[in-house]
Amino acid sequence: MWVHIVIFTAAFGLVLFSKAGWIHWGLLADKKGVRLFLTVAVGCNLLGMLLTWKGGENASYSCGLRIPRDAAGIYEQEYTISVDGERRGTMNIQIPQKESGQDDQEQYLEKENPQDLKKREFQEMLEKYNQEKQDPDYYYLPSQWKGHRLEWERPKEHTGELLASLGFFAAFLLLLKETKEKQEKELRRSEQLLMDYPGIIMKFALLIQAGMTARKAFQKITADYRRRGNKVSHFAYEAMAAACNEMDSGVAEIEAYRRFGERCSQMKYRTFSTLLIQNLQKGSRRLAELLEKEALEAWDERKRKARVLGEAAATKLLVPMIMMLAVVMAVIMIPAFLSFYG
C-alpha cells in the first residue's frame, strides 16, 4: 500500500508546487501533457489500489485450511510453511496436482537439493493426508504433522502495486514524449521562420521601392499569402496576418508591429519590426536601403542554413546506403560462392 501512497503524494505535491510557481512546466511540456501525465499516473494508481485492496494482506492459517475443489479450473497458490513457529520455506499448492511418470520422478530426485527434498516430503504428507480424508469437494492443509504444529501463510498479491508503478512509469514516458514533440515543433517553427524571412523582407523592400507605404506593403504580402491558400501553415505569414487583423480592429500600427516581432520571437523579425516602428516614428528615408541590406544578409544566412540541412540529410542517408551496399554485395557474392562450392 505504501507504493500507492507515495504515488498519490508525488502527484499531489507536483500539483501544489506548480500552483505555487515552484515548478515551471513550460520547460518540460504544456498543460495538455501535464494533464495527461497526472491522469495516467493517478488512474493507474487508483486501479492498482483497488487490486491491492481485493488482494488483501498476508493471510495466516494456524488451524489448518480447507480449500474447495473447483472442477471447472485449477487452483494454484503459493504458501509459506512454518513448523513450530519456524519458517521452513514456501510451497506451491496446486489442485488438481500435476501427474508425473516414475522415471521423471527418479531423475528429478537425483537433482534435488535438501530443501527440495523437504518440500517433496511435505507434498507426500499432504497427499497421504487428503487420501485419508477422502473428501471429493475439499482439499485440506493440516495443522499437525508428526507432533509438530504447522502454520500456513498465504502472501498477498503485488499485482496492484506493480500496476501502479508501471502506470507511473508510463505516465513519465508520456511526459517525456510530449516534451520531445514540443521541442521538435519549436525546432521546425524556428527553421521555417528562418527560411521564410528572406522572401518576406525582399518582397517588402520591392514594394517600398515601388512607392507603397509600410502598412500597405505589409497588407499586400499578407493578402498574397491568403490568396495562395497554402495547405501548410507558415508561422511568419500567420503572424503578419494577425498583425493586419489587429490594425484593422483599431490597434495602433506601432503596437501591431511590436506584437508581430514578439509573436515571431526571433531576432531577425524583431529587427524587422524595429525598422517599421522607426519608420513611423522618425520617418526614415533610408528604409528601402536598410531593407535591401537586410534582405541580402538574410539570403546569405538562408544559403548557410540550406548547406547545413543538406549535410545533415546526407548523414542520415549514410545508413540506408550502407544497407543497400550490403544487399548488393550479398546478391553478387552468394551466387559466386554457391557456384564455387557446387
Written account of the structure:
The protein has eleven helices and seven strands. The protein has 342 residues and is an alpha+beta fold. The radius of gyration is 38 Å and the shape is elongated. The two termini are 68 Å apart. Mean pLDDT is 79; it is low at 101-110.
What's the short story on this structure?
With 342 residues, the chain is of the alpha+beta class. It has 11 helices and 7 strands.
Give the topology, please.
Elements: H1 2-20, H2 31-55, E1 59-61, E2 65-68, E3 75-83, E4 86-95, H3 102-111, H4 114-133, E5 138-141, E6 144-145, E7 148-154, H5 159-209, H6 214-228, H7 235-248, H8 253-264, H9 267-282, H10 287-316, H11 318-341
Antiparallel strand pairs: 1-7, 2-5, 3-4, 3-7, 6-7
The gross shape turns out to be elongated
Q: Give the rounded overall mean pLDDT.
A: 79
Spatial gap, N to C terminus? 68 Å
Given helix and strand content, the structural type is alpha+beta
Can you summarize the main beta sheet? Answer: 5 strands, antiparallel
Output the keywords.
single chain; 342 residues; alpha+beta; Receptor-associated Protein; 3 domains; five-stranded antiparallel beta sheet; two-stranded antiparallel sheet; 7 strands; elongated
